[in-house]
Specification:
The chain has 312 residues and is of the alpha/beta class. 49% of the residues lie in helices and 14% in strands. It has 2 domains: 9-256, 2-enoyl-CoA Hydratase, Chain A, domain 1; 262-303, no CATH class. The protein is globular.
């Protein structure tokens, strides 16, 4: 599947955090997100992504296949902007936390309704993804993981929860027991584990993601009208309500203001690890989460259930 050199004028805009690719044979628009120093859903990146969605909606029939990918090696997306969260929590800025959450829900809602606007979606995950990054991947009709990719919801480790659709999406794809284990444990899972849980549709060898994507598009395109109609029926059978998403993120924002200093320092520690990973370090956020889990276990072993503060 060759990549067209020029984008259709309707979606051709100058973006700072997005890299758009166009494949004209099957009308495939691939969006690669690249945010530094942390590959996350920053407010600026989300604003650009919302503009892409608006342009697709405003030009029905132009884009038939939408692909979400990453422009950062070994990282798909680390989800929420932890540095911003820490800043807002310390400032007791509930309104801004709610604003961020609403921006997330708007993106979630567009992807949830993509079939209704005639667009088939695929997430191509070629690196680690956490929290909101995993939530955004699960929103797509097809989810492809390369084998090296790992994912999970670590928020419980700093006394929060993934609030931008994790419960809705994980329950729908994997069932309540899977969602309960993943969200309440904070553990990181391999691509194969996620595939066995029903959350990932296809696992391919490292470096095989692009070829797998081509096969998915080529297979779906001749029967696309039927697939999109079936996906719309799936939403009727297993609906997710916009109001429910809004209620959860309101609860998420209020819960964030209850975080203690230890929780915020853990978030800062994880944010530093995310920067190291984007910078090319061998160890990054996933490894840091595992260390935090171990440190937490040893902290409780030493002090029982009382709070401890030996953070690095």
């Amino acid at each position: 599947m060759s990549t067209g050199r020029s984008l259709p004028p309707a979606v051709d805009r100058p973006y700072k955090y997005l890299w758009l690719e166009w494949e004209p044979e099957f009308s495939v628009l691939t969006v690669r997100i690249c945010v530094k120093p942390i590959q996350c859903y920053s407010l600026a990146a989300m604003a650009e992504l919302q503009q892409v969605f608006n342009d697709i909606t405003a030009n029905p029939g132009l884009v038939r296949h939408f692909v979400m990918a990453s422009g950062v090696r070994d990282v798909f997306n680390f989800g929420g902007d932890l540095s911003l969260f820490v800043l807002l929590v310390r400032a007791r800025d509930l309104d801004s936390l709610k604003l961020y959450a609403r921006r997330c829900v708007d993106l979630v809602w567009w992807l949830e309704n993509a079939a209704q606007v005639g667009v088939h979606t695929t997430a191509l995950v070629q690196g680690d993804t956490l929290g909101g990054g995993l939530e955004s991947a699960l929103l797509h009709h097809n989810v492809i993981f390369e084998r090296r990719a790992q994912a999970g919801y670590p928020e419980v480790l700093f006394n929060l929860f993934p609030g931008m659709g994790a419960w809705h999406l994980t329950v729908r794809k994997g069932g309540f027991a899977i969602a309960n284990d993943m969200i309440l444990s904070g553990q990181i899972y391999t691509a194969d584990q996620l595939h066995r849980a029903g959350l990932v549709d296809l696992v391919v060898e490292d470096g095989g993601g692009e070829a797998a994507l081509e096969k998915v598009v080529r297979s779906a395109h001749p029967k696309l009208r039927g697939i999109l109609a079936a996906l719309q029926a799936r939403r009727i059978a297993a609906p997710i309500a916009y109001e429910s998403l809004q209620t959860v993120v309101e609860h998420w924002a209020v819960s964030a203001l209850r975080l203690k200093d230890r929780d915020l320092r853990l978030m800062e520690r994880l944010a530093r690890a995310q920067v190291r990973k984007v910078g090319g370090a061998g160890e990054g956020a996933v490894e840091e989460i595992k260390k935090i889990e171990l440190d937490t276990a040893w902290g409780f072993e030493r002090t029982g259930l009382s709070e401890w503060s030996t953070l690095t």
